[in-house]
Structures are given as structure tokens and as C-alpha cells.
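Q: I'm writing a short explainer about Copper chaperone NosL for a general audience and would like to include a description of its predicted shape. Could you first generate the structure from this sequence?
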Amino acid sequence: MHRAILIISGVALLAVIALPIWRIELDAAQYPEGLELLIYSYKLDGHVDIINGLNHYIGMKTLRADDFIEFTVLPYLIGIYGLAFIVVGFLGKRKGLYILFAAFLLFGVVSMVDFWRWLYEYGHDLDPTAPIKVPGMAYQPPLIGFKQLLNFGAFSIPAIGGWIFIASGVLLAYCVFGEWRIAKTWAKS
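A: Of course. Here's the predicted structure. Afterward I'll give you a sentence or two in plain language.
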């Protein structure tokens, strides 16, 4: 049963390459329909041009996919993990499962720290000659959840690809725990 879960999770991870992983929604009275920034493994999408136009006024750097090395390597890393899930599922080796779990957990933590660093740099490294300056104000969107940034509400959550990624990690943890319990039962026999 664990093998099938791993294989299905691996295929789902491969689909993440083409799906949005994260979304940041901005709401303000001037934009009743809201603005959305979608982050894929290889590009930025949504209302990027409008958001960049607004960010100019507060001195934020222009968001451009070319400025992020992550968009070059992330599709390959996700692909490698997707294939690793499939291979470990087919081989059915407990040691491979444990190694995959440790590596995937590390990847998830490093990815979130890197994303937080992005948000921090864009929200704090402001152009001192920007037209709008509010002393002491930083414009870092939240990593997860809601934050008020002047007249904009910023809401940051996983998109469909991010939820698949999280679900794959939870299912991987379930498989690890299940295999650990099986090994523990065999050891007692």
C-alpha cells in the first residue's frame, strides 16, 4: 500500500512543475477585484505588471523571474523528487524511504526559508528616492496568512501546486511512520 502512495505522490509532484505553487493576493479599495501574484516553479504570473507599477511608488524592486536563480533550478529539483518518489515506490526499500523523507523535509524547510528571504528583501530593500516614503514602514508580505500593508491587504497561501507538494510530504511521512511501525513489530517478533 505504501508503495502505491509513493508512486501516485511522485506523479503528482511531476505535475507541480506546471502548476502554480504559491499565490499572493492583494486587496485594496482601488482594486475591488483584487490583484494576484502566482508563483510557479519557473515563472511569475498574474497581475505582475500592475503590482510592479504599484511597487515602484514605495521603492520595491521590480519583480522579474530572471532575477531569481530558483526559477532555473526549481523545476529540475521538483522533477528529481517526483522521480525519486516513484523509484522508491517501485523498489520498496525502507532505507530509501527514510533517505527520501529526510531529503524532502530538508528541501521543504530550505524552500520556505528561501521564500521568506525573498519576501524580506523585497519588502525591506527599498529605493530611498521612492515617491512614497513612510518612516519605519516595511512592505514584506506574509509568508503565510494575512498582513495589512498600508491600504493593501496581502494574503499569502499555497496555490494548487503548493497543496500537492504539502500533501505529498504528508503522505510520505505517513509511509515512513507506517514502515517504522511494521519494522518495530517485526523486531519484537
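A: For your explainer, you could say: The two ends are 22 Å apart (CA to CA).
Q: Perfect, that's easy to follow.
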